[in-house]
Amino acid sequence: MTINFPDIVVLAILLVIVVSLFSGLYYMLHDRGQSTRAVKALTLRIAISLILFAVLMIGYWTGWLHPHGLLPPHR
Prior knowledge:
The protein is mostly helical. The chain has one domain (5-62). Helix content is 71%, strand content 0%. It is built from two helices and no strands. The protein has helices at residues 5-31, 37-62. The radius of gyration is 17 Å and the shape is elongated.
């Protein structure tokens, strides 16, 4: 199993989404509604998720990414 460049890009974007999600949680717990940092972090997460969706669609249309099931086909 080889990991291609598009796979690394998708995994990196997913990691950024998770980091943004936890930073929003951190700001929500520590700021107690006194600042807008939680809203900005969660808005950033939504924007990055939309970018990931666009990257997946473009990757599929260009042939960089190939869909597959959970289990590879038996040979």
